[in-house]
User: Fold these one by one.
Assistant:
Number 1:
Amino acid sequence: MVQGSKNAALPIMAAALLHNGCTILHGCPKIADVFVMEQILQKLGVTTHWEGHSLFLDCHQVCGCSISSSETEKMRASVLLAGSLLGREKCVCMGYPGGCVIGRRPIDLHLEVFARMGADIQEDGDCLRVTADRLQGIRHRFPKVSVGATENAVLAAVGGEGWTILENTAREPEVTALCSFLKKMGVRIEDNGRGTLCILGGCILSDVEYVIPPDRIVAGTLLLAGAAVRGKITLFKAPVQQLDSLLTLYQKMGGQYLVSGGTLETDSRGVRNALPLTETGVYPGFPTDMQPLLMAVCCTLQGESRIREKVFENRFRVAKPLKEMGAKIRIRGAYAKIQGPAVLKGCPVEAMDLRAGAALVIAALCAAGETIIESCEYIERGYETLYQDINLLGGRIRKENDSIDETETTGIPAKNKKEITG
Ligand code: EPZ
């Protein structure tokens, strides 16, 4: 069964701060990034506990609005606490967000909308301080589509006065999930489905229970793992309607699939055709988060595949370890050319970010012999049961822990390596 969405759970956890009450999130993924967000919320005074995959958040005792840079640098999504603390306390003092080094990842689009709502922004060294006597409802058109900036603007607007109208917003399913969570909490939000969101500030909020939707990137990862090894897999609770761009590519490479209810059955025995050109883009385009995964599969296809990365400026990092395994990849600016099929050979490789790590798991399943993936804690930032799922599907993955400091509460174990036999 496909886990709950990391990129929906994180903004929704931040959004819980907007209400001085209780939030219950069902189907919450037990992954390192969620544990990091939980720890940050606890330091702000939120009482949390788990019952299975249900996360309980009690925000009655939230005090202060400061978050240390040692916390924020652990993940990009920490930036979303700026919008929720601004919406709740009209102030936030925090370090800059960290996260996967897939690009510069500035936050200018976030700060621009805060400033336009009337906030005062002070940046000194690694500390960002945003304060406001009051937040005005505004009409704002984003100059560039940004998931995080859209989410932060929505969160701040909840604490604003009057209507905030956001145009050229991100339309990723995770943004939609955040809005549906906030509507359940009592916020009036109108979404025209074409990139305009209207949020009414100052609504009366109430306790809320919400089910985190399944993770489309995890579903895509498993589908592409099946494609790489020409297997047949069945995904339960797959968000099929969010996978159109991937399924179109999957059919082009020769895959076949069947949808029945929330179950997606794939048959990759016919997968062989290279993909002449795939471009990443904002939703509903092909997601940049699946690009490294697709690159790994392209190594097994017959002919030359090309990928153009249009969202992040440094997201071809997985090409280096893939080439160490024998892949034939050439990077020219925003374009990657992959010649296949390549004979991949297992060897020690390094995961450099979350989705690159998952791509190496896929490549390792197609490689002869054993592959050792160093720094697999990157993978555990976003995948709860990837290793178990791959073993269930017939792969062989074993985790060899150098050392895990049991006292670590962030859920990110010490340096680990993962051994996979293709
Ligand atoms: C979110 O990151 C996701 N993370 C990313 O997933 C995902 O790749 C990305 O959206 C794109 O879909 C979470 O939701 C936690 P953006 P985010 O703002 O919000 C530029 C994963 O693997 N930009 O939509 O940081 C930016 O540099 C992660 O799960 C600015 O220029 O992405 C990028 O080129 C990786 N200024 C583009 O916009 C800003 O102020 C899109 O970034 C903000 C962004």
Number 2:
Amino acid sequence: MNAPAKNEDFVAAKIPDGVYAETVLDVEHYTEHLFRFRMTRPDAFRFRSGEFAMIGLMVGDKPIYRAYSVASPAWDEELEFFSIKVPDGPLTSHLQKIKAGDTVLMRKKPTGTLVLDALTPGKRLYMFSTGTGIAPFASLIRDPETYEKFDEVILTHTCREVAELKYGFDLIEEIRNHEFLSEIVGDKLKHYPTVTREDYPFQGRITDLIESGKLFTDLGVPPLDPAIDRGMICGSSAMLKDTKELLEKAGLTEGANNKPGEFVIERAFVG
Ligand code: A2P
């Protein structure tokens, strides 16, 4: 296997059309399987909070891309991504080794359905995530527009182990300590972390917690109501399917960019 390409390789290699070559600024590893990185943002790169982009590396003389939700908000001068490390993953086996100063490729056009535009107006916004599915919500909870549109924002994050929740806790702390965001967010944002394979005060799959009603009791909110509640879901295919079924059972209908609805879904990408 080849090592990830360094900046100097790009001087000689031709960057394909429609692709940005950006510089890694910072890398933080959370567990054996999770890390985040920040990189420079091209001036011309515009996206809506919650969208994803194709991120890549030159591996040998070939670029390899995977879809990554942008974890930073639309106003941020830098770009942040939250990734798993797949030991034999075509991209992540290389991407997990990047360091500040390395070059990462990004295709120019972002896209995605986990955007505020795809939801009809409501009062309470649920963001249901498992694993790296928290990434698009890391963007949305740091975007003031989310709090202009909703009175209450509930971020649920379920992981197998406690250590995997750290990225979410760091985000909440960053918001609380942020000069402007802390004022805009106030007490509108609620974080509901749960764990499924270790002891923890909040335990269980989010689907089970919705079905039993424990989620709502713990949060002190009424059960799901299509008149005021909106949802966004990001996780594995199985998690999306099961959570979607529960929202539909509660009377919420799925929306899209061209047809806003009461909830939207997107697969948390791996590779
Ligand atoms: P569990 O430990 O019970 O499988 P994964 O890494 O497999 O995507 O799992 C991330 C988290 O999502 C785990 O806590 C896992 O719980 C949970 N999960 C997996 N499948 C589902 C599902 N169909 N519905 C809800 N949560 C799920």
